[in-house]
Design brief:
By secondary structure, the protein is of the alpha/beta class. Helices cover 44% and strands 18% of the residues.
Amino acid sequence: MKGKIKKIKFLSIILCSLVAVFLVVFISIIHSKNAADAKARAQNKKLILGFSQIGSESAWRTRNTESIFEAAAENDIQILFDDAQQKQENQLKAIRSFIVYQVDVIAFVPIVEDGWDNVLQEAKDAGIPVIVVDRKIKANQSMYAGFIGENGVEEGRRAARYLVNKCRNTEGPVNIFEIAGTENSSIVDDRASGFREIINTDSKFRIIHSENGDFLRSRGREIGDMLLASNVLENGNTTNTIYYNKQKIDVIFSHNDSMTLGFLDSMEAHKINPKGYGTIIISIDAEQESIDALIAGKLNCVVECNPNHGQMLMALVKQVAKGESIPRITYNFETVFTEDDNFDKYDPRGY
Ligand code: AHR
């Protein structure tokens, strides 16, 4: 009898052990399956990019936004978008809301260079990488992953190189009236410094005045109206030579096409024929409308500023989301269009 009981006890111990082993194996299979599923979910998760754009002040800017949306869709990246309506305070609010939302990456076009330190620290504390787009910032490099955009200094140099070559046989002085864009923006500082670096190699070039046109067509028109009012004579006829403070203007250097086109609108309203009246007009961006004006002989040179940042930005977004580092600076490809070009070979600009 005792032997029988022992046998039953022994069998129950074996059975319990088998059940325990089975449970341990079963639970660990379930656990590792869950872990694998979670990893796969994290890998396949749609990236979310918080993007703060400064506004829609120009056709260039509209194309810049479109390019980023198109590329995000092609790369299956979801965008949380904010239009700052030209105000830094709106950009700061938007970036803070992206942090609260815990987006994977933040990208923003800084309207001005300064004032980003606190919000960048907040993004850093939240572990969200930040990419600066189009315009640069004055901040410690450790506060953001990198910059993607145009080389503003080189754009300014290109505009000036065209001018130096164009005026190579002119004795001088060559008086330049500058129409600049948004104050305290890196792009204006860069274009202005690149332009000055080249023209300062010859003392015949003089910038007689620099006026802020805020990158807006309406401001270009206002500046034109201010300069050209005295070109309409009492008898209704117009004179073609443009003056600022009694000094003849030989060159208009405008920091973007919107302001240049506004200036041309004013010339048309004042019945001043832009062809052959002697003022050289140089612009930046290369929107279709300004290329058309170049072809029509109303402009002399248009330096391209390429707004198509989308694909390059998305490649960088994917890299930083994986924790990889990216180059400090990524520049877009850009060229120059002048009155001497053969325009048959150019594709439509797309903006
Ligand atoms: O920052 C780029 C500049 O901003 C473009 O030249 C201009 O058109 C835009 O508004």
